[in-house]
Specification:
The chain is an alpha+beta fold. It is built from 8 helices and 12 strands. Strands 1, 2, 3, 4, 5, 6, 7 and 8 form an 8-stranded mixed β-sheet that branches. Strands 11-10-9-12 form a 4-stranded mixed β-sheet.
């Protein structure tokens, strides 16, 4: 199933697409869907950037809107997975959040922020903190320029039961920046055109061979997961898990797109490494303790 006429119109018109995203996500803020300043007991809080922008999907092709992800390196948990840049909250984020709450900031320019600040000031302060954490992590991981981003809104919270953590996705549009400087946590950058993500033929059922010692820690008993598979620079990249849920939820909210039932998807076989949940050991035999990716 290819993109329909309405979807293609949005993909051809960058300003109209961004306007649509802002309108939809502003309504989410009006309805009070931010989790608030109190997380579940013992739960780690993370914030990530759903990074949207225009790029050429292949050499010589015209630029088109898509999603920019990073691929986790072998030195961190969930190596090889695709994820949004981001991570856990740190003390510095409280200072950065105060800067975002002032008039003229990238967050203040979002139409839903002033209304949120007037109606639910605690949620507005919490949003500032979450966005600050996502910006800091984006700079640390990929050197994302925070001044080149337009805040489009936040998406519903994702919860990872096996990691006892919550993930707050922040949708942003990146302008101008084409190159990134990667930290040791990131193997490479992966870009997916929205047009490809809206094509049901690019989805599959990811059947994972799970080592017995980590099987009991998964959120679900089944080893079958919906996934998205797409060739990038001669390699087939696979998106699954919480980042898959973030991306496909965004597609449904903005375009009305729904992933086909998993029983109807072609089978793709895979296997988790025994160190998938913990990360590879460094030269001194110590485990990398970076927070789990979405």
């Amino acid at each position: 199933m290819k993109c329909d006429a309405l979807q293609m119109d949005l993909l051809r018109d960058g300003p109209a697409f961004r306007k649509r995203v802002i309108e939809v996500l502003s309504k989410l803020g009006e309805n009070g869907h931010l989790s608030g300043s109190v997380e579940r007991e013992g739960e780690r809080t993370s914030s990530v950037l759903l990074l949207l922008g225009e790029f050429s999907p292949r050499k010589g092709a015209l630029s088109e809107p898509g999603i920019i992800l990073n691929k986790r390196s072998q030195s961190v948990r969930q190596p090889g997975d695709l994820c949004c840049p981001g991570g856990g909250l740190e003390k510095l984020d409280n200072f950065l959040a105060r800067l975002l709450a002032v008039r003229g900031s990238t967050l203040y320019k979002w139409p839903g922020y002033c209304q949120l600040k007037d109606s639910r000031p605690s949620d507005a302060a919490y949003l500032s903190l979450l966005y600050a954490a996502a910006l800091r992590e984006g700079w640390e991981e990929m050197r994302i320029n925070p001044f080149g981003l337009t805040f489009l809104g936040f998406l519903p919270t994702q919860r990872l039961v096996m990691y006892k953590s919550s993930i707050h996705p922040m949708a942003v549009w990146i302008s101008g920046q084409k190159r990134f400087r990667l930290s040791s946590e990131v193997e490479r950058i992966v870009r997916f055109p929205l047009r490809a993500l809206l094509d049901a033929s690019n989805y599959g059922c990811y059947r994972i061979d799970i080592p017995s010692r980590i099987k009991g820690k998964l959120e679900r008993e089944s080893a079958d997961f919906p996934c998205f598979v797409y060739p990038v620079e001669g390699r087939k990249e696979l998106l699954w898990g919480a980042t898959f849920r973030i991306v496909t939820q965004f597609l449904e909210m903005i375009f009305g797109f729904k992933v086909p039932e998993i029983s109807r998807l072609p089978l793709i076989l895979g296997r988790l490494d025994e160190h998938y949940m913990t990360g590879a050991a460094d030269n001194n035999g110590r485990k990398n303790n970076r927070p789990p990716g979405p």
